Amino acid sequence: MGLLDSIEGMAEQAMASQGGANAQVATGLMQTLQEHPEGVQGLLNGLQQSGLGAHAEQWASGALTSATPEQIQAGLGSNGMLEAVAAKAGLSPEMTQAALTTVLPMVLAHVAPNGQAAQPGDLGSLAGSLLQKFL
User: Fold this and answer.
1) What is the mean pLDDT of residues 88-96?
2) CA nearest neighbour of 65 among 78, 77, 52, 74
3) Domains and CATH numbers, the chain
């Protein structure tokens, strides 16, 4: 069983309970980050370039305040990441954008603690611990 199979299995368990769309979007975001050439650093760079650097730093430090849909669109819409996450999650971009208001701060707290981007090889174990929050 591969890493993506494990992640998908955890997401299915989460969807069977209360995680629903948030678990699907968290899984889609983690898969997108694994496939992105710059990984987590690419996400952080995109947020910085869209004027959300301070918010990203807060989220990465563990401040789990929700993002707004406008912040999600500004940070992930212009670089195609929002659409990629939606496709992997099997949801519309609008549903994905709404779920990311909660999911993105949680993911950043896990994959970029204190603003330090996780290495691509570490994303698998980080994905597992993150998805446990939805189970």
Assistant:
1) 93
2) 52
3) 3-132 (1.10.10.690)
What token pair was written down for 41?
């650093």
Comparing C-alpha atoms, which of 18, 41, 14 is closest to residue 28? 14
Q: Are 32 and 88 in contact (CB under 8 A)?
A: yes
Residue 133 has what DSSP assignment? T
For tokens 């939606």, what's the residue? 86
How many angstroms separate the Cα of 126 from the Cα of each of 50, 58, 73?
A: 26, 19, 25
* CA–CA dist 84, 32 (Å, integer): 7
Residues 43, 19: Cα–Cα separation, whole Å: 23
| Distance, CA of 63 to CA of 38 (rounded, Å) | 24
pTM over 0.85, yes/no: no
Residue type (1 letter), 86 = A
Q: Quick one: tokens of 83? A: 């659409």
Residue-wise pLDDT for 20-41, tens only, equals 888 899 889 988 988 888 888 8
Q: Which residue has the tokens 């992997």?
A: 88
What Cα–Cα distance (Å) separates residue 71 from each residue in 82, 100, 104, 119? 12, 10, 10, 25
